[in-house]
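=== Discrete structure encoding ===
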Amino acid sequence: MSHEITQPTPVRLASTYIPELSGMVILGGLVPAFTVPAAAALAIVPAAALGVQEAHRLGCNARARIASARHRRNREIAAAEREDVEEVQA
């Protein structure tokens, strides 16, 4: 019996959801944004099982998404602060 995945499967760093699972990845397509119901994941496996390059790519992608979200949040905060200043000046 082969455990090979034949269809594209979303892969996420498990530590994004559960910090204690550092070095693990989640294979599955039903994982909501910030929760990991065990039944929704196809598997939680060591990142090394996917190969060094794939694990590195996943790590880079996760860091890029986190940085992007941080920048977006900072822009939203700056815009809200500008609005507050404009209201006070008006």
Summary: The CA atoms of residues 5 and 27 lie 10 Å apart.
